[in-house]
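User: Run a structure prediction on this.
Assistant: Running it now.
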Amino acid sequence: MGSVRRASAWLGLVEDNDERYYDDEYAEGADSGDAWVTDPRVRVASETAQEEGRRIATVSPDGFRDARAIGELFRDGVPVIVNLTAMEPDDAKRVVDFAAGLTFGLRGSIERVATRVFLLTPADTRIITGEPGGRSDDGFFNQS
């Protein structure tokens, strides 16, 4: 089988009829009829994140009536990304006002991530930006 054909088969663009690439253990397990069993060491990311308290919720409200879901998540200490791109401008303004009051009341913070997308973070959450910080003046790029 040529390299282009193998790459196409790997990407799933063509059928792979070459049997030599199948693992023998995989073929034996398929014949046994056992149901798919997940390795017990592998855990679903959302379950692990929930146990360790590292969750972020994404909410795309249709109208102001969905603001309650934002408030409940934020009150539980979950950072919330609010995507208002699909809303009417008047309702979006109401949701932003609600979110600003919510974050003020619970001592959190609100930050605009993109146009009509906001991040609400509880008081105990720290945001790390991708900007370089703490460069010294005598560093490598000092040209003076």
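The CA atoms of residues 8 and 57 lie 37 Å apart.
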